Amino acid sequence: MHNKAVADFLVVENTQLNSTNFLIKLKGEKDLPKLYPGQFVNVDIKGLNDVFLRRPFSIFEVNYTENTLSLIVKILGKGSKKLTEIKKDETCNIVFPLGNRFTIPNKGEKILLIGGGSGVAPMLFLAKVCGLDANSVNLLLGARTKEDHIDATNYSKYGKLNFASEDGSLGEKGFVTQHSVFLNLKLYDRIYACGPDAMMKAIAKEAKAANVFCEVSLENLMACGFGVCLCCIEPTTDGNKTVCKNGPVFNINDLKW
Ligand SMILES: Cc1cc2nc3c(=O)[nH]c(=O)nc-3n(C[C@H](O)[C@H](O)[C@H](O)COP(=O)(O)OP(=O)(O)OC[C@H]3O[C@@H](n4cnc5c(N)ncnc54)[C@H](O)[C@@H]3O)c2cc1C
Ligand code: FES
Question: In CATH, what number is assigned to the domain containing residue 163?
Answer without folding.
Answer: 3.40.50.80
